[in-house]
Q: What sequence folds into this?
């Protein structure tokens, strides 16, 4: 219990650092050699990032990624089961929104993978809303093949990279 | 030499005419032509004359740059040693390019002359003041002149290349000379930055960036210190292509929930939606006239190339072979469209005529290639070469299929002249 509290405190501090870090987003235009805003993407395994004092608000827990076949954005049975669990979590929690990130493996062109990643994120969003999740709580963004989860260059890495990833927001 | 030249032209014309294929029946793109012997004009490039010993190191640099420029254009077989001339009809030599560096009125001067070896006739010459810091550029000026004297068309030695690279976890937008020299970082940021394209008479670069958390279009003028937002509406705003002829931009936007091709004005305001399919429509590229565009759509079930007029009419499918054709780039003369095709799981470069004839591969090797973009000479292309996890900007001569690596990076675009 105590350990969990410490973990929560650490997470809150960590998040504060992240939020503080991107506060200067408006002014982060690039002087040619200056370093721009820090990474704003949450680590994939992050736990419930914000714990409020009010007991009646229930925050979300981390959601599992949904994976896709090569060059596809259709949902497999397994993907649907994962999304059903994620929908349960979204409905259980009374606060918090999510960003669904669409990702691709490194094969293919940048532009087409951006579009494919968007299709994947949208497929996940459409399934969640069909299950009764309020679409207003969901934003989608595609990273194409620009931010692979696994930097490898084999089928094992590619399989991990063809995914929709769920980022919790307050 | 002229007789031989004419013969080679005739030979190339015959070779170019042979394979007229019914494109709808082709399952895969035909392989590259077997090593076509490309005629090169024998060019004698002797050592520079150096009248002032204090200029030796500069002269050596200039000689080296001139050699590289003339070598790069692919037109010449460069001979450094004094050749033995064997009689009147000797074809082993045609022109001599002589550089000379001297001091006149206290100023360092470079002088280049071009002479017909057989007749001894003076073809042309140029004089330049050598200014510190622009030595390479001075030679690039002269080598473009040499190419102009020989072919009637300027070289590309004064053009620039823009590309992206990952550097210590940061994404950088970089501009360099056509030969990879003088890289200059325009933008450095912690979020993805991709697909830069030259814009507004090479004074600016349009690119896609995740600065605001999603893919949006920005434009960066080279003489400004900040980028401007070009298109950042709902959804993705990406893969832009600027036409100097039209002063308009083609881009893919997903503001309606699906990636479609749009025509934007130079300030990023949407003028017209050009595609209306439920499929993915992306990667638009202008024809040099600014009258047509090529783009990619997976409306047939796989990504394939299409062409249409910018007014939205006359849509037709261009590629039929293979299950993945993307990233089209229209040649500056309008006679070819380069693209990326997937064969046996590998991504290769290919070309096809805009009426769908004579499609064929330019590369066949292991590894992968992406993002072909033409040089203004219509003979060279810059592209991304991927080997393992490494990405390099490479240049291919589509006549000889010769390749060379320019820099570490990806996503390059070649400026116009």
A:
């Amino acid at each position: 219990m105590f350990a969990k509290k410490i973990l929560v405190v650490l997470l809150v501090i960590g998040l504060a650092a992240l939020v503080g870090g991107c506060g200067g987003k408006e002014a982060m235009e690039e002087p040619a050699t200056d370093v721009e805003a820090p990474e704003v993407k949450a680590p994939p395994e992050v736990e419930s990032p914000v714990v409020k004092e009010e007991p009646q608000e229930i925050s979300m827990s981390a959601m599992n990624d949904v994976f896709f076949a090569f060059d596809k954005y259709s949902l497999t049975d397994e993907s649907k089961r994962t999304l059903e669990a994620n929908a349960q979590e979204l409905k259980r929690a009374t606060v918090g929104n999510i960003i669904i990130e669409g990702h691709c493996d490194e094969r293919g062109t940048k532009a087409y993978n951006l579009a494919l990643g968007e299709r994947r994120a949208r497929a996940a969003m459409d399934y969640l809303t069909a299950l009764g999740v309020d679409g207003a709580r969901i934003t989608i963004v595609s990273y194409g093949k620009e931010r692979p989860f696994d930097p490898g260059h084999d089928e094992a890495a590619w399989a991990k990279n063809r995914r929709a990833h769920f980022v919790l927001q307050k | 030499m002229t007789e031989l030249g004419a013969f080679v032209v005739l030979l190339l014309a015959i070779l170019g005419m042979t394979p007229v294929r019914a494109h709808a029946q082709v399952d895969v793109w035909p392989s590259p032509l077997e090593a076509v012997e490309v005629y090169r004009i024998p060019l004698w490039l002797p050592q520079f004359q150096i009248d002032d010993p204090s200029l030796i190191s500069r002269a050596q640099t200039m000689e080296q740059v001139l050699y590289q420029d003339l070598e790069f254009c692919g037109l010449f077989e460069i001979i450094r040693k004094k050749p033995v001339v064997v009689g009147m009809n000797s074809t082993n030599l045609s022109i001599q390019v002589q550089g000379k560096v001297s001091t006149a009125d206290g100023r360092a001067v470079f002088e280049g002359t071009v002479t017909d070896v057989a007749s001894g006739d003076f073809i042309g010459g140029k004089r330049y003041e050598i200014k510190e810091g622009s030595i390479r550029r001075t030679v690039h000026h002269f080598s473009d002149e040499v190419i102009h004297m020989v072919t009637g068309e300027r070289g590309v030695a004064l053009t620039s290349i823009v590309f992206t690279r990952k550097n210590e976890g940061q994404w950088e937008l970089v501009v360099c000379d056509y030969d990879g020299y003088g890289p200059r970082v325009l933008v450095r940021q912690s979020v993805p930055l991709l697909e830069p394209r030259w814009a507004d008479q090479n004074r600016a670069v349009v690119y896609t960036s995740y600065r605001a958390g999603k893919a949006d279009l920005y434009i960066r003028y080279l003489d400004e210190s900040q980028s401007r937002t070009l298109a950042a509406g709902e959804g993705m705003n990406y893969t832009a292509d600027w036409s100097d002829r039209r002063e308009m931009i083609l881009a893919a936007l997903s503001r309606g929930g699906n990636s479609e091709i749009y025509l934007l004005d130079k300030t990023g305001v949407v003028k017209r939606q050009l595609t209306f399919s439920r499929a993915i429509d992306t990667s638009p590229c202008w024809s040099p006239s600014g009258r047509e565009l090529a783009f990619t759509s997976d409306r047939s079930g796989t990504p394939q190339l299409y062409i249409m007029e910018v007014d939205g009419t006359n849509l037709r499918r261009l590629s039929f072979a293979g299950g993945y054709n993307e990233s089209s780039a229209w040649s500056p003369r309008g006679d070819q469209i380069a693209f990326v095709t997937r064969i046996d799981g590998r991504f290769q470069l290919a070309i096809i005529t805009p009426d769908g004839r004579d499609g064929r591969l330019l590369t066949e090797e292991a590894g992968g290639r992406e993002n072909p973009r033409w040089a203004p000479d219509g003979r060279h292309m810059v592209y991304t070469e991927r080997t393992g996890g490494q990405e390099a900007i490479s240049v291919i001569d589509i006549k000889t299929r010769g390749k060379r690596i320019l820099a570490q990076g990806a996503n390059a675009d070649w400026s116009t002249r």
Residues 7-52 of chain A have pLDDT under 50 and may be disordered.
